[in-house]
Amino acid sequence: MFKRFVISFILLAGVIESLAAVPERSEFFPGLDEDSMRVRLSNADLQPMEGIWYYPNEEMTLGIERIETNSHDERYRIILLGSIDAHLLPGTVIGYLQASAVSNKWQLWLYTERDRLTLYKPMSTVATLNAASTEITFDRPHWKVKVRVNFARFLPSIFRGVSIIPDKVEEDLPIGFKKIFPEGGDGNPFTRIRYL
């Protein structure tokens, strides 16, 4: 029992540590738009995740760029470059990505609330990068709460063999981003980060 508690505590500490790495409120990079992001990316050694992406569900153009860290974590910020929502300024960070142990699975945080020009309340979900590095798909960030009740304790013994089966919930189509620049790395193969 104690061993299970220690393992649960370590896993919870890891989740809290990764959430602590995401700022509670969004950052802002003034003057950053699609043209300036193309120049920035053209002069960089791009990773498969980096580039300019289109988010059709929200009609946004986004830039994803690597964040330089002292650790071995691959982390990226998602920056708004253009949107039909005039209240969001280009250069606003709308989320973050962090690599996981599975090469095509990423931890994705998106800000879910807005206070004037600032975004806050990051929510987490898992994103999947396709093999060609041209699409990122994910489910909408959400929290699930599970409650288990042993109904047999409250029913007469004749009903203890009855099962309660919940209805199947329809699966939603995943949402995501489509890469618009560079298309397949402009013919240049992506390189992986090497640590010496």
Q: What does this protein structure show overall?
A:
This protein has 196 residues and is an alpha+beta fold. The protein has one domain (22-143, 170-185): Lipocalin, CATH 2.40.128. The chain has two helices and eight strands. Strands 1-2-3-4-5-6-7-8 form an eight-stranded antiparallel barrel. Strand 1 and strand 2 form a beta hairpin. The longest helix has 19 residues, at 2-20. The radius of gyration is 21 Å and the shape is globular. The relative contact order is 0.16. Residues 4-19, 143-148 and 185-196 have low confidence and may be disordered.
SS-based class: alpha+beta
SS elements, strand count: 8
The CATH architecture is Beta Barrel
Q: Give helix % range.
A: 10-25%
Number of domains: 1
Strand order of the largest sheet: 1-2-3-4-5-6-7-8
Kindly identify the CATH topology.
Lipocalin
- Main sheet properties: 8 strands, antiparallel, barrel
Distance between the termini: 41 Å
Q: Can you tell me the CATH class?
A: Mainly Beta
Global geometry: globular
Task: Identify the notable features of this structure and list them briefly.
196 residues; alpha+beta; Lipocalin; eight-stranded antiparallel beta barrel; 2 helices; 8 strands; 14% helix; 32% strand; globular; disordered C terminus
